[in-house]
Design a protein that fits this description.
Chain A is an alpha/beta fold and about 240 residues long. Helix content of chain A is about 35%, strand content about 25%. Classes of the chains: A alpha/beta (about 240), B mainly alpha (about 260). Chain A: GO terms for molecular function: ATP binding; ATP hydrolysis activity.
C-alpha cells in the first residue's frame, strides 16, 4: 500500500533518514521503533508530505506522493504533540477540519462520544492539558474512517481509561483491514496489537519482521524482550 | 482555497487589530481634512500619514500573523489540502483585510473631501501599498523560523523603504551631481514601493515641491499618464515578486 523507495533526508549535517527502503502492506499493524532521534518522526512526516526528502520516492496506492495531496484523504494522522491554533475552541477546530475534508461519508463519532469531547467544545485549545489535546487529536484521526492510520506515540499523556479506549479503537481498525503505523517507546503497550515490527537506527532500517517470526528467531516471549535481546546482541 | 480563506478571514477579524487599525486611519484622515482649510493641503497630510503607517502596520501585522499561524499550517497539512493553497489563502486573507481597512478608514473621507479621480488613484495606490507590504512580510517570515528575527527583518525593511530610501537617493544625487545621473535615479526609485506611491500621488496632485527628489525627476521624465501607467505596473511587480519567492520557498520547506 505504501512503498518507500530509498529515501534520504538531512537536517543540516544530521542524517535523519539514510537510504531507507520499506514496503508497508494493507491490513498490517506495524510498530515503528528505535531510539530517540533515529528518524521515526521524520519518516512519518515524509509519508505525510510535511518533510520533503532529498532523494527517493514514496508511492501511496501506486501514486507518487510528490506534488500530490489527494492521497492524504486516506490517512489519519495523530501527531506526537498535537499543535492547534491557540485561539480556537475544540468545536471550531472540529468544524474546520470537517469543512476542509468536506467528506460526505458518515463520520465516525465513537471516540468523540467515549472521550466526552461534546462537553468540552467551548474550551480554547490553549487551555487544554496535554492529555485532552491528545484526545482531540485521536478523535480527529479516526473521524473520517481513513484506510491508513499513522499514530505517533498515541497513548503518551493519556490516562489509563482513555488509553484503553484508544487501544480498543486501534484493534477495531486493524480488524477492519486498515494499515496502522504506530511509534511508541512503551513496547509492552504494543504487545498484542502489532503484527509487524520495524526497527530504525540512525536513519537506517535494521529490521522489518513479523512479530511471530521475531519472537521465534530470538527465542523470547514478548516483543519487548526480543528487541532488547537484539540490541544487546548488536552492541556485543 | 475559499474554504481555507473563510477560516483565515474569521480568525483575522477575531484579533480585532484590523478593526483598531481601521478606526485609527479614519481618525487620522477625518481630522486632517477637517483641520486644514483646503482639501489639497489635507490630502498631502493624509498622503504623508498613509506612506508611513500603512506599510508599517501591514508589514508588522502580517509577519506576526504568519508566525502565529504555524500551528494552523501544520494542522491543515496532514489533511488533503494543497500546500500552496494554504499559503495563498493566508496571503489573500491578510491582503483583503488590510485593504478593506484602508478603504474604509481612508477611502471614504477621500471620496467625500476630494475629487473622484484623485481619490481613486489614492485608494488604488494605498491598497497596493498594503498588499505589497503583506507580500514583503511573507518573504521576511519565510526567511527565518525565529519569530524575533523575522519581525526584525520586517521592521528593517520598512525602515529602509519608508525612511532611508529617499534620503539615500538624494545623497547619491548630491555626490554625483557633476555627472548626468537622472536616468539611473529614475531606475533607482523603482526599487522602493513607497517612493513609487509617492510619485504616483504627487504626479496627480501636481505639487512637485513636496515630491521629494525622486518624484521631481520622475515627473520630468515621464509626464503624467506615462508615469501613472509605469508606476502601477511596477507596484504590481512589487506584489508578485516577493510573494512568488515566498511561495516557492514555502513549497520546499520542511514542517
Amino acid at each position: 500500500m505504501i512503498e518507500i523507495k530509498h529515501i534520504t533526508k538531512h537536517f543540516g549535517k544530521l542524517k535523519a533518514l539514510d537510504n531507507l527502503d520499506l514496503t508497508l502492506e494493507k491490513g498490517q499493524c506495524i510498530a515503528l521503533i528505535g531510539p530517540n532521534g533515529c528518524g521515526k518522526t521524520t519518516l512519518i512526516k515524509s509519508i505525510l508530505g510535511m518533510v520533503l526528502p532529498e532523494k527517493g520516492d514514496i508511492i501511496f496506492n501506486g501514486q507518487n506522493i510528490k506534488n500530490n495531496n489527494e492521497y492524504r484523504k486516506h490517512i489519519g494522522y495523530m501527531p506526537q504533540i498535537g499543535r492547534y491554533p491557540e485561539n480556537m475552541t475544540i468545536g471550531q477546530v472540529m468544524e474546520m477540519i470537517k469543512g476542509i475534508r468536506n467528506s460526505n461519508e458518515v463520520l465516525d463519532n465513537e471516540l468523540y462520544e467515549q472521550f466526552g469531547i461534546g462537553k468540552m467544545l467551548h474550551k480554547k485549545m490553549r487551555t487544554l492539558s496535554g492529555g485532552t489535546t491528545q484526545k482531540v487529536s485521536a478523535t480527529l484521526t479516526f473521524m473520517f474512517r481513513p484506510e491508513v492510520l499513522i499514530l505517533d506515540e498515541p497513548t503518551a499523556g493519556l490516562d489509563p481509561v482513555a488509553a484503553e479506549i484508544l487501544k480498543a479503537k486501534i484493534m477495531a481498525a486493524k480488524k477492519a483491514g486498515c494499515l496502522i503505523l504506530i511509534t511508541s517507546h512503551l513496547l509492552s503497550e504494543l504487545e498484542g496489537i502489532v503484527s509487524q515490527v520495524i526497527f530504525i537506527q540512525e536513519g537506517q532500517l535494521i529490521l522489518h519482521k513479523n512479530t511471530t517470526e521475531l519472537k521465534r528467531d530470538t527465542g523470547k516471549d514478548t516483543i519487548a524482550q526480543s528487541i532488547v535481546h537484539l540490541l544487546k546482541a548488536q552492541t556485543v | 482555497m475559499i474554504r481555507i480563506l473563510k477560516y483565515v478571514a474569521l480568525d483575522i477579524l477575531k484579533t480585532k487589530i484590523v478593526i483598531a487599525y481601521t478606526i485609527m486611519l479614519a481618525l487620522f484622515s477625518w481630522s486632517a481634512f477637517s483641520l486644514e482649510d483646503n482639501a489639497a493641503k489635507g490630502l498631502v497630510t493624509v498622503l504623508n500619514i498613509v506612506l508611513l503607517t500603512v506599510p508599517l502596520v501591514s508589514v508588522l501585522f502580517a509577519t506576526i500573523y504568519v508566525y502565529n499561524s504555524t500551528e494552523f499550517i501544520e494542522l491543515l497539512l496532514s489533511h488533503p489540502v494543497k500546500r500552496s493553497m494554504i499559503w495563498k489563502a493566508l496571503f489573500t486573507g491578510l491582503s483583503l483585510s488590510m485593504t478593506v481597512a484602508y478603504i474604509v478608514g481612508i477611502g471614504i473621507p477621500l471620496l467625500i473631501f476630494t475629487d473622484p479621480g484623485t481619490a481613486l488613484i489614492m485608494i488604488i495606490s494605498g491598497s497596493l501599498l498594503s498588499v505589497i507590504f503583506v507580500a514583503i512580510a511573507f518573504l521576511a517570515s519565510i526567511l527565518t523560523r525565529d519569530k524575533a528575527k523575522g519581525i526584525g527583518i520586517s521592521i528593517m525593511l520598512w525602515l529602509y523603504f519608508a525612511l532611508l530610501f529617499d534620503g539615500l537617493v538624494l545623497f547619491l544625487f548630491f555626490q554625483f551631481s557633476d555627472y548626468p545621473i537622472e536616468k539611473p535615479i529614475v531606475i533607482l526609485s523603482a526599487l522602493s514601493p513607497v517612493d513609487l506611491c509617492r510619485i504616483l500621488m504627487l504626479l496627480r496632485l501636481d505639487v512637485s515641491a513636496m515630491m521629494g527628489y525622486t518624484g521631481a525627476i520622475f515627473q520630468h521624465f515621464f509626464g503624467n499618464n506615462w508615469g501613472l501607467l509605469l508606476s502601477f505596473t511596477l507596484l504590481t511587480l512589487w506584489v508578485v515578486v516577493p510573494f512568488y519567492f515566498s511561495l516557492r520557498k514555502f513549497n520546499k520547506r520542511d514542517l
